[in-house]
Specification:
It is a single chain. The radius of gyration is 19 Å and the shape is flat. Helix 1 (2-18) crosses helix 3 (51-61). The chain is mostly helical. The protein has a two-stranded antiparallel sheet. It has helices at residues 2-18, 29-46, 51-61, and strands spanning 25-27, 65-67. It has three helices and two strands; from the N terminus they run H-E-H-H-E. It has one domain (2-70).
């Protein structure tokens, strides 16, 4: 849970620092989580999180961008579920 919060904070700060406010590009949060998870143990092992580590983290996070298209959604098609949930399966 702590890593999730750190990821959200890192993505927010990287976006405000490196992306314009009205940009159509957004940071890919899943790939940002992998970056934070990869760099966090090294930063903690050093004992001090320096500004160079934070800048490196922000640069790595902003390399993974996604194009955001407004008013475009892809809802799932309506149809039967592929399998029943566990509550409706018979027990043996």
């Amino acid at each position: 849970m702590v890593c999730d919060n750190l990821n959200a904070l890192a993505v927010y700060l990287a976006a405000t620092e490196h992306l314009p406010v009205d940009s159509d590009w957004r940071i890919n949060r899943t790939l940002a989580f992998n970056t934070v998870r990869r760099l966090l143990p090294r930063a903690l092992a050093m004992g001090i999180v320096t500004s160079q580590v934070v800048k490196q983290l922000f640069v790595e996070i902003t390399k993974n961008l996604q194009k955001f298209v407004k008013l475009r959604s892809r809802p799932r098609p309506q149809g039967p579920k592929p399998h029943k949930s566990h509550a409706y399966k018979p027990t043996v």
